[in-house]
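ARCHIVE RECORD
Type: protein–small molecule complex
Small molecule: zinc ion
Source of inputs: curated submission
Record status: active
Notes field left blank by submitter.
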Amino acid sequence: MTLSKKMGFKGNKAFLPTKNCFVCGREMTWRKSWAKNWENVKYCSEACRAQKSLARPHGVKL
Ligand SMILES: [Zn+2]
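STRUCTURE (tokenized, with ligand):
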């Protein structure tokens, strides 16, 4: 049990979903605090969220 737990932890990070910030294009890794609204997360930070109106229409789309 200990062994499988260790292996699971090691591969866990790579398994986490990621998406790119709409403003700066930086890759965001899934966070527990985003679990309930991961689908709606578009910005990596409050700073980017504040800049969304300044962002170009041609956002990063990955
Ligand atoms: Zn950002």
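CURATOR ANNOTATION: Residues 21, 23-24, 26, 43-45, 48 surround zinc ion (CB under 6 Å).
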